[in-house]
Amino acid sequence: MTQVTSVALRRVLDSRGNATVEADVLTDSGGFGRAAAPSGASTGEHEAIELPPGAAIAAAREHALPRLVGEVYAGNQREVDAALHAADGTGNFSEIGANSAVAISMAAAKAGADALGAPLYQHLGGTFRGDSFPVPLGNVVGGGEHAKEATHIQEFLAAPVGAPSVSEAVFANAAVHARISELLDDRGVPAGKGDEGAWAPPISDGEAFEVVGEAVDDVESELGFEIGFGLDMAAAELYDADEGVYVYGDQTRSTAEQVDYVADMVDEYDLVYVEDPLDENDYEGFSALTARVGGGASAPNASGGGPRADRTLICGDDLFVTNVERLQDGIDTEAGNAILIKPNQIGTLSDAFDAIELATENRYETVISHRSGETEDTTIAHLAVATDAGFIKTGTVGGERTAKLNELIRIADDAV
Ligand SMILES: C=C(OP(=O)(O)O)C(=O)O
Ligand SMILES: [Mg+2]
């Protein structure tokens, strides 16, 4: 019923106008799945390897398709993903490309769900899933690698942790995004948008804190539920390893000063979430900050109910790269209390699930995430619901972002 009978691969456009890999998987009973690989700009140095799409497709056709077609069952995700690993043989997908691997892995999951007649989140998570939803983290102002001449900090995020429903949370983030446009207008600041649809104004990080803080407060008062404030600092992009300092234009901060700066911002703006506050190899710095503002390693998992008031989530993206070995190092050193999950960082859904399971067992919050280069693919919305993730980070506006947000609304409405 779910035996894979064909896999087709092609180049399609992503949201930046770059080529990416799309996969179609078909099963013997007619089950069909289509998925496309996203692509990062501020990628972690320990991520699985993305190849140029043409090369990834050629290599996957040569090495992976013979191990998939007529050989594996799309309903058995572990088997599909094991075949991808065997075809690649390198441990980091440098032979067939993590972009080919993740597109095939996600397309197979969708084909399996289709053949079985279940929504994807239910196929991945089981019949008891679908009644709790992640809090959407909405990127509302940004810069770094996602927009030139804007803020040094990559993402200023709205986190509607008190929203009564996922739909109200999604609309709250859109309202914060709209309010920021008005506030920037009042200040006479012109703003285009960055890669993820966040405003990319030519203002300092300090001004961005003020504007986002005000917008979050305004929308919170208007809607009557709590909206938190978060950041993705993408600090590996700010870090000068030779000098051992974080560079913010003409200002620099040592690691100790960076920890102080983040802790001060947590206090001043009541931050509920800070991603990658330190360099991607600095477990020690993550531990120091987590001990200071993260509520301790034994804090209960915030899943479903938003973060605990006394616990800021310190999330590893480039630090952990969805990799169980790097996450285990973090658990051992109490570095962070949350992990960002990007399936393309590790190459398959099975590997992403392993990271989610290890995180959950160790009381790390899970945040399922898009990339800055995206497509209309909605797999991460289903993955977040299937795994009962506390959060999903998938932007606020723009078709490739709203594709995921609208899918969450449909899942909540039993309309998938
Ligand atoms: C989504 C992000 O950006 P990118 O995809 O460029 O890594 C991120 O850093 O969390
Ligand atoms: Mg990040």
TrEMBL record:
Pfam families, per database record: Enolase_C, Enolase_N
List of residues binding (2R)-2-phosphoglycerate: Q154, K342, R371, S372, K393
Protein name: Enolase
Chain segments annotated as coiled-coil in the UniProt record: none
Gene: eno
Active site residues according to the UniProt entry: E196, K342
Primary location group: cytoplasm
Record's function text: Catalyzes the reversible conversion of 2-phosphoglycerate (2-PG) into phosphoenolpyruvate (PEP). It is essential for the degradation of carbohydrates via glycolysis.
Subcellular localization, as worded in the UniProt entry: Cytoplasm; Secreted; Cell surface
Keyword tRNA processing: no
Residue ranges of every copy of the Enolase N-terminal domain listed in the record: 4-124
Residue sites binding substrate per the record: H146, E155, E275, D317, S369, H370, R371, S372, K393
Residues engaged in binding Mg(2+): D232, E275, D317
EC number of this enzyme: 4.2.1.11
